[in-house]
Amino acid sequence: MRGAVLHAPGDVRVEDRPDPRIEQPTDAVIQLAAACVCGSDLWPYRGIEAVNGPSPMGHEYVGVVEEVGSDVRTVQPGQFVVGSFFASDNTCAICRAGYQTHCVNRQPGAPTGAQAEYARIPLADGTLVATPGMPDDDLVPGLLAASDVLGTGWFAAVAAEAGPGKTVAVVGDGAVGLLGVLAASQLGADRVIAFSRHEDRQRLAREFGATDIVPSRGDEGVAEVEALTNGLGAHSVIEAVGTQESMLQAIRATRAGGHVGYVGVSHDVSLPGEELFFSGVHLHGGPAPVRRFLPELIDLVCTRAIDPGRVFDLELPLEQAAEGYRAMDERRAIKALLRP
Questions:
Q1: Which residue ranges does the record assign to the Enoyl reductase (ER) domain (predicted)?
Q2: Domain region containing 236
Q3: Most buried among 49, 185, 198, 304, using CB within 10 Å?
Q4: Residue where a domain terminates, one of 243, 258, 285
Q5: Which burial class, exposed, middle or buried, applies to 104 when counting CB atoms under 10 A from its CB (0-12, 13-18, 19+)?
Q6: 103-146, pLDDT tens digit by residue?
Q7: CA–CA distance, 224 with 228 (Å, rounded to integer)
Q8: For the whole model, what pTM was predicted?
Q9: 3-state helix, strand, coil in the chain (%, to 5)
Q10: Count of structural domains, the chain
Q11: Given this model, what pLDDT does residue 49 score?
Q12: Residues whose CB is less than 8 angstroms from the CB of residue 132 and which lie 6 or more positions away in sequence, other chains included
């Protein structure tokens, strides 16, 4: 099969790779209908995370089940499925509490890489969710979004306790942040403030439900949120970047007693203990338990109640995966979709 491999920072190649096969009786092999480049893929691409030899890339995926192991019961060949970036059994005590990304049997969701023609999915019964029939092609981008960025933005909004009567601020205008705006709006927030300096992302944020746009960052951005909230700050803040500046901005934009839902993959974030102690702010987040939300999100996409696939503003054939990485790295694209 053909698959994307990261050899070194800035060096993505689409190569011939071994076809994945069933290795455990709980595995499935799927033929990918679509995959994409994640913001977290850019950390090793930029050299911020170490690249230890050639690495198959991709963890967001939708496709058709090709083959299942002997112990798989909930999905079968021919079904269109959506999975999560972590594989989980969905039966352990942690999974039953809704934190499948911390499953006691947690594994990479697509260890063979999802930016490819085929992928092996471990723990298929707990990881994959079938759609109601074969979806129309125009729904595929939205279902792909559900496998990570929509589920992550949704978890961030839930962790921040977005809902009716709340003002929600969103730090980060990448795909996760924009879908955090959509999630907060869907969850009934009265007001959604999006931090964004980019006109195209501001426009999409408004289409997803943002009521206010704040182009400033850092303490200046915090001051603007306070000005919009009678000096109190937002009830709920989504942090969707993962840097020191973005985390402090999120905490400082939150009113006492409010909640921060943080889902940006943290890099060198160090929180000042005294400031955190006196902030009175709740912090909750980490790798999103996408599997918890998949049935609901698949239904919302398939019934066309939401259209999260609009975050994909660049679609390329798999063979041009390197251009997808370049476009996102250079901020020429919000998110690149790859078609095998």
A1: 7-338
A2: 152-285
A3: 185
A4: 285
A5: exposed
A6: 999 999 999 999 999 999 999 999 999 999 999 999 999 999 99
A7: 6
A8: 0.95
A9: 35, 25, 40
A10: 2
A11: 86
A12: 298, 302
